# Entry
Amino acid sequence: MSKPSSSSASEAAACDSQEQIAQKNWEMANNVEIVSSVDEIYRYDKKQQQDILAAKPWEKDPHFFKDIKISALALLKMVMHARSGGTLEVMGLILGKVDGNTMFVMDSFALPVEGTETRVNAQAQAYEYMSSYIEAAKLVGRQENAIGWYHSHPGYGCWLSGIDVGTQMLNQNFQEPFVAIVIDPVRTISAGKVCLGAFRTYPKGYKPPNEEPSEYQTIPLNKIEDFGVHCKQYYSLEVSYFKSALDRRLLDSLWNKYWVNTLSSSSLLTNADYTTCQIFDLSEKLEQSEAAIGRGGFIVGGADPHEKRTEDKLLKATKDSCKTTIEIIHGLMAQMIKDRLFNSVTPH
Amino acid sequence: MSGQKDPMAMEVETAPIAETSNSSKSSMDITTDPGKNVMASGAVGSITCSLHPLVIMNVSEHWTRERAQEGSVQQVIGALIGKQKGRNIEIMNSFELVFTVIGGDIIIDRDYYNMKEEQFKQVFSDMDFIGWYTTGDTPSATDIKVHKQICEINESPILLKLNPYDKNIEHLPVNLYESVIDLVSGEATMLFVPLNYTLATEEAERIGVDHVARMSSMDSGESSLVAEHLTAQHSAIKMLHSRVRLVLEYMKAVQSGQLPRNHEILREAYSLCHRLPVMDGLRFRQDFYNQCNDVGLMTYLGTLTKGCNDLNQFVNKFNILYDRQGLGRRMRGIFF
# Structure
């Protein structure tokens, strides 16, 4: 408790000792080495980046970039910005660099653009903001260039809509290397896990060599068509996150205060609206699949492929219902835990 | 329910606050030149602060980045923005500031700040400039000089100091200060007063922080969702348990005479126990059962849907296997 101050007192007193000096030197040398290998990623090598930009290895291979590493800070900023938009879509730019087949996202910033899905281009105000922000950032040691854009899909999942695909194709023609990140703040809170996707589009007319089975996502009924039409025009990158040594240490200490928030969060209440929407959507999907199954018997000859489709509809509806069920069960588990911990004590 | 927890969080934190004021007093004894002392003794902060973890990560990244690029440790300076409601300040975001060192003094570039202020007003229109941050240990005279420059922008700014070298994981090496003008040997001088702060509790932020905090310790591909969820709860409960045990050991020590009685701590522990059970009225029980029933109903529906799906798949496979030419199809036509 008063240990930190007393140890600094003893350090000050014992600094005369040669052993102590030698040990401190060794410690400092060791620390510096350990840290620099982890935090190398934060150093921006201008020459290396310029060489890569000149070589443009992504031009020949549409599937060049395979994974993307996002810094802890960029993730938090994007999540907070997306959340602040509420049910409106928000948009921003991401700064970073490229190394081999990996894209690195170091930072992100919000753009003053009104979020509506129908907007393809940012307004002139946003363009000016973008360039002046990046210029200002260079003055404080943020040397990275814009390497992509992000926007939010509040409540309907991480995928690219038709307009997004169009925008991204344009970007990939003129601003390479560029990536599109989509984040869903509502599902993040509901599932308790970060819901984020990073995508790159294929050039027009390009057919990917093998059909990659993508992870199934719950898409609400009113968006399912948009998703289905365009889902083959882009692929997703493997997302991973990184943090610095200081980040790690701070996050460990943060936990010492944050555990209270973990225990006290009530996801059933926070997500009530979203859960209701999910159930409405699910009921409509079930009605659709029921109608489809009912019709199946009359078609002769084409029965098998048609049945496969109705099966798919019901299968998808089942997956959606499982997802919703699991989330609310988690919410109830948290409530039960709290009830047990804080209500099951009998006062004397 | 979350409203109930905040008093408990405050109660847990008052103990460390007594310690920080102790440590700041003893560090004041250690500073060689009492004239350089910039901490006001015995003063209590006049405002409460709520700090978002995003700001902490911002400062940390700024420091790491500067160090990685320059190759050596740099002091970093930046601005804090947020909202102020009466005596409550919420620090929500931050950005870097440009400064020059002229003759050993740090001078903040006002033009750069004005440009950044214009920018952030476009995106975060309801946030204001709240204060500034820097890295280092306890505040020093140089911090006072910079603080005076910041006072030209905002009358009473907050100073946030992050100590990147504090190895003690038990507490967050982030301290907040506000300034007061005190009479020191006849002169009106500016001194710092430490402020108490709580961590802001935005749900999305918490999940993001949780995710980056635990991602390296988890093996990739944790297949069970339940295990993930329960692990988080388990860690939180473990912390609660260790805290409660700490209080219990203190009580035992007081009882056996090993430690002197501190009536304030004992009073708080007593009031803590008195608050249990937290909620136990008839109304609560009814609502809670309603909630449980709702969840049970949804689970039932989910299970029914799953059963329907399984049955449908079985029937389809059955039909494919046992389909007889003509007869089977005509039969299906009759039933539908």
User: Anything to note?
Assistant: The first helix of chain B runs from residue 2 to 30. Confidence is low (pLDDT under 50) at residues 1-35 of chain B. Chain B touches chain A through 105 residues (CB under 8 Å).
